[in-house]
Design goal:
Blueprint: H1 2-14, H2 17-35, H3 40-48, H4 57-81, H5 91-102, H6 106-141, H7 144-160, H8 166-180, E1 183-184, E2 191-192, H9 207-227, H10 240-270, H11 276-290, H12 302-318, H13 320-326, H14 332-343, H15 352-355, H16 357-388, H17 393-412, H18 415-433, H19 439-461, H20 468-471, H21 475-505
Antiparallel strand pairs: 1-2
Length: 506
């Protein structure tokens, strides 16, 4: 009852005129920041951080958190309407959101994304409120073996459920791991895989560069090659009746993906250094694994939109937990928020809930208000997003290219990354032409920099003994499940061979 009382006080505090104004402005700004390729929540929060010095510290943090919320909703917009992830967290949304838009069902995809984001945010808020101290201690107990086992499970879902062409899936994962290893070694600090001795590779390959190149430029080139520029513009109509119908369909077909993303996303978000991007990609893989029709994924599955969108919103709330309770940022965006709190004299950690009780519960209360505001504002702007799809392709293609280039340059301010982005776009075009899956490579370049140091740290802890991944109580079951998924295609192949061997006899 004490928790509910504190939460009620926090929500009343967040509904004060100044704080409510900050929430509404922050969510709206965040929605458009998230929808702009190349910006995302990290850059948006960092750019707008100086503005917050005009308001009290509590209102400032509420404003930045609202931007974060809005950006999580907005990331799906460009993924669905343009095929360009507005942020790395929305990459998985592109897999099925873009095919739905091409089928003339952009409104369904956008409504599904909004509703899944709302449910994921709500579930995460409730879990955050009820179990913050307990979950913080659990996350703190996660060592390198547990984190590596979790990353291995993410790769295993793509191998075990990658269809019949498993070699191409494995190649795609290995290719992503190689790209993720470019730059300086995280342990020794020595440069490695510096291709052609270009100094630009020393800083590594930015995920944003890869995402925009693959899903912006690469997708545009593929569309041009397939259609020869003769693209029939999708003209979905947005009405109140149509939105009600889309809402009903989204709830009916997307409930399983929403549930998976809501809980898995929060769990992954709580883990320090994980964040919303791995959470969304992992939720997509799990949703595909448990689906009755896994073949629909990648072709316009509602569950394929709901799972990653619920996950990234749930994870964004979950990443706040280690920041507030332990002082450990759970994502790049929360790292910016952590810096802002320190500037304002607020020290994150267990004492924060005691010393700054009003601030903490006011912030938690704002999560609930921001989530509702983001849903309503997002649904209100869906007709604007739909309008983007009505543009002729002769206009849309140059717009996509310009957005990709300017968005990439705005984020990195480095022409080397722009040329690299174009190279990735051309490479993605040829990979798709030869039927190589792109999603595993994207997953690998995200999780590779997390998996590699945790693997090496785990082996150092065990003096090189890999049994550490099986003997630890949490890492053991996760590793076993991952290995089962990895060898699942082999079991299926053996079963088919046996079935073929029995056919002549019968």
């Amino acid at each position: 009852m004490e928790v509910l009382s504190l939460l009620g006080d926090g929500m009343l505090l967040s509904l004060q005129p100044l704080n409510l104004t900050m929430i509404l402005i922050g969510v709206t700004v965040g929605l458009f920041i998230g929808a702009m390729p190349g910006l995302g929540s990290v850059n948006g929060v960092a750019i707008l951080l100086p503005i917050t010095f005009l308001v009290p510290p509590g209102s400032a943090i509420i404003f930045l958190a609202a931007i974060y919320y809005g950006a999580m909703y907005g990331g799906a917009v460009s993924s669905i309407t343009l095929g360009i992830p507005g942020a790395s967290t929305a990459v998985a949304t592109t897999f099925d959101g873009r095919p739905l838009a091409r089928q003339g069902r952009a409104s369904l995809a956008l409504v599904t994304a909004a509703l899944a984001s709302f449910v994921g945010g709500t579930v995460a808020n409730v879990l955050f409120t009820l179990f913050a101290p307990l979950l913080a201690s659990v996350a703190l107990s996660f060592g390198p073996p547990e984190v590596f086992a979790l990353m291995l499970l993410a790769f295993a879902t793509f191998v075990g459920l990658g269809g019949d062409d498993i070699p191409k899936t494995i190649f795609s994962i290995c290719f992503g791991l190689v790209l993720g290893a470019v730059g300086f070694d995280q342990i020794s600090g020595a440069p490695r895989l510096v291709l052609f001795e270009y100094n630009g590779f020393l800083q590594g390959i930015g995920f944003l560069v890869l995402a925009i190149g693959v899903y912006g430029i690469g997708e545009m080139l593929w569309t041009i090659e397939q259609t020869r520029g003769d693209v029939s513009a999708t003209t979905p109509k947005m009405t109140v009746k149509g939105m009600a119908s889309d809402t009903k369909e989204a709830a009916k077909k997307g409930w399983k993906g929403t549930a998976i993303g809501s809980f898995l996303g929060f769990f992954v978000g709580v883990l320090p250094a994980a964040g919303a991007t791995p959470g969304s990609l992992m939720s997509y893989g799990v949703a595909k694994m448990v689906s009755r029709n896994p073949d629909e994924f990648g072709k316009g599955s509602v569950d394929g939109v709901a799972a990653p969108e619920a996950a990234n919103n749930s994870a964004s709330t979950g990443s706040m937990l280690p920041m507030l309770t332990l002082g450990i940022p759970g994502s790049p965006t929360t790292a910016i928020l952590l810096g802002g709190m320190v500037i304002w004299g607020l020290v994150p950690g267990p004492r924060l809930f005691v010393d700054e009780q009003e601030f903490v519960w006011g912030l938690i209360g704002s999560f609930y208000i921001s989530n509702v505001a983001a849903l309503l504002i997002n649904l209100a702007f869906i007709p604007v997003f739909i309008w983007m799809l009505r543009m002729p392709f002769t206009i849309l293609a140059p717009v996509i290219f310009v957005l990709s280039i300017t968005g990439g340059y705005a984020a990195t301010r480095d022409m080397f990354d722009i040329w690299l982005m174009v190279g990735f776009g051309i490479g993605a075009f040829f990979l798709r032409k030869f039927d190589y899956p792109l999603a595993p490579a994207v997953l690998a370049i995200v999780l590779g920099p997390i998996a590699e140091p945790t693997l090496r740290q785990s082996l150092l802890l065990s003096s090189g003994d890999p049994a550490i991944f099986f003997t630890r109580p949490v890492a053991g079951p996760i590793t076993v499940i991952a290995l089962i998924l990895i060898f699942l295609p082999l079991f299926k192949a053996l079963r088919r061979m046996r079935a073929k061997a029995k056919e002549p006899a019968s």
